[in-house]
Amino acid sequence: MRFGDDFNGTAGTSPSPVDWRVDLGHGEPGMPSGWNWGTGEVEAYTANPSNLSVDGKGYLRITPRRDAAGEWTSARISTARDDFVAPASGMLRIEARIRLPDVFDAAAKGYWPAFWALGSPFRTVRNWPQAGEIDILENINGTNTVWGTLHCGVHPNGPCNEPSGISGRTDCAPRECRAAFHTYGFEWDRSKRPEQLRWYLDGREFHSISQSRLPAAAWDGMTSHSGFFLLLNVAIGGYFVSNEAGVHTPTPVTEPGHAMVVDYVAVWTRRDGAKKPFPLLRPVASE
C-alpha cells in the first residue's frame, strides 16, 4: 500500500476531492446541535478557499479566520480512504511534513492544529474511542511542544484514561515548530510480539505504546477493523486548549489568519519490520 499527496495544484483550489473529504460546520452529520465535534471547539469548518486551499507552490494551507461579528471559521479534511492498516507481521508508517501556525503567546490562545487518524468504524457508528484515535501531532496555544496520543477503549476512564488518552510530548528543535517545517510520523509495527506503536518528530522517537500495556479487548477494538483514515485540521478553542491555557479560549486578542502549512502527507506499508528507511514521497518542497 502506498498513499501520498504533495498538494500540487492551482493556487486557491481545494485539495484533491478524489483523495480528501471536507468536513463542514460544527459536527459530524447526525450529531446534535452544539456538538462542536465533541471537543468544545468554537469554529465552523468550511470549504472556503480563505480557510482551505493549495497555494500553487506545493503546499496546503488551513487558515483560521474571524469575521466582523467575531465568528471563527477554519477547515478540517479527512482522507477518502479509511483502510490504512499494518499488514500481518508487517508495518504501517504515516508521515506528514508540516509548519505549524506562526503565532505565539496571547495571540495564539485557542489555536489547535492537528494531524491524526480515526478508526474506520467511526464514520458510521461514531464509536469513539473504541475504534481508536491516533493523534500523530497536536499543538496548542502556539507553544513549542507537540503531543502524540492514543485514545482507545471506553469513555470515561478505561485503559486509555479517557478523555485524556495516553500521551507523550516533546519540543521541536533546533528550530521551533512554528518557525520551520518538521516531519511528524507514526508507526504501527506488527513484526514484533507484542505489537508496538511509535511516534516520531523529525525521525526521533518520542513516544511508544506496547500492545502488552492494554487489555486485549481494547487493543482488538482499535486494530481488528479495516483500518484508519487520516485528518488534518486547525481547531480554535476547545477543552484541551483552554485547560492548558488556564483561560477560556479563544480570547478577544487571539489573532486570526495564521495557517498550518502542509508540504505532504504519505502512508506506506511493508510486509516485514526490517529497520530500513521508508522511501520519501518526493524531494521536499523548497521553503
Report on this structure.
The chain is 7% helix and 36% strand. With 287 residues, it is mainly beta. It is globular, with a radius of gyration of 18 Å. Mean pLDDT is 93; it is low at 280-287.
Mean pLDDT: 93
User: H/E element string?
Assistant: EEEEEEEEEEHEEEEEEHEHE
Low-confidence stretches: 280-287
Gross morphology is globular
Summarize the structure.
The chain has helices at residues 122-125, 216-223, 239-245, and strands spanning 2-5, 20-22, 44-45, 52-54, 60-62, 65-66, 72-74, 76-79, 91-99, 111-119, 133-138, 145-151, 166-171, 182-189, 196-201, 204-210, 228-236, 260-270. The chain has 287 residues and is mostly beta strands. The longest helix has 8 residues, at 216-223.
